[in-house]
Amino acid sequence: MTVLSLFVNEADISNLWKLDLIGINDPVERKCKYEIDLQTKNHFLEMVTTNKEGRYEVCLPWSDDKSFLPDNLSLAKKRLNYTTSKLLAMNIYEKYENVIQSWLAEGIIEEAPKNEVGCYGNYLPHCAVIKLSSSTTPIHLVFDTSARLANYPSLNLCLACGPSLIELIPDILPRFREREFGVIADIRINIRKEDRFLTVFVVGKDG
């Protein structure tokens, strides 16, 4: 079994259509949410740093005590076994491995020290979304940060989500059409070392 580290915050697609995510909600609730979002933003601005490689490094924005997170290795391994069995049955496990290896090569993830395997407690269960018709990403790994054991919170529930950017879309789309070319980009960040033990996941055919 190999343990790797990565943090991805996955949102349920159905949430994109909820009224509160586009700014339509109770004024009192909105004020309270605004204050929480402001605290989260200020926390981020205070804690963000630049590492020696020139990449931004941040700490996770905790909204609750992370000590409540349980040891969910069994859940992560169960998801892994299901995923690998499915990929092996479809004879495409190699494509899944290629994704992992490319992430390692690009420095997106890193392999955990062998002597620390099994010592983390919280793991990110993941599955593979398969789209063989895609020439660029036939297999896409999805991490379930909402996965939880009974009577315990998930990683998502312990993190402040920050302000919703969905409500900015109606303003952005018209401006995107003002010029001949539009530019979009992703920002890659590093999770500080102190928080990485909560963002690990397991890979390997042996589960």
Question: Describe it for me?
Answer:
There is one protein chain. Residues 6-11 have low confidence and may be disordered. The strands form three sheets. A three-stranded antiparallel beta sheet has the order 4-1-8. Strands 2-3-7 form a three-stranded mixed beta sheet, with no helix packed on it. The termini are close together. Helices cover 29% and strands 14% of the residues. The protein is built from four helices and eight strands; from the N terminus they run βαββααβββαββ. The chain has 207 residues and is of the alpha+beta class.
Terminal residue distance: 6 Å
What is the strand tally? 8
Number of helices: 4
What is the global morphology? globular
Please state the structural category: alpha+beta
Task: Enumerate the strands of the largest sheet in spatial order, edge to edge or round the barrel.
Answer: 4-1-8
Q: Helicity range of the residues?
A: 25-40%
Q: Brief overview, please?
A:
The protein has 207 residues and is an alpha+beta fold.
Topology (elements, then pairings):
Layout: E1 2-5, H1 27-47, E2 49-50, E3 56-58, H2 73-89, H3 93-106, E4 110-111, E5 126-130, E6 139-143, H4 169-176, E7 189-191, E8 200-203
Parallel strand pairs: 3-7
Antiparallel strand pairs: 1-4, 1-8, 2-3, 5-6
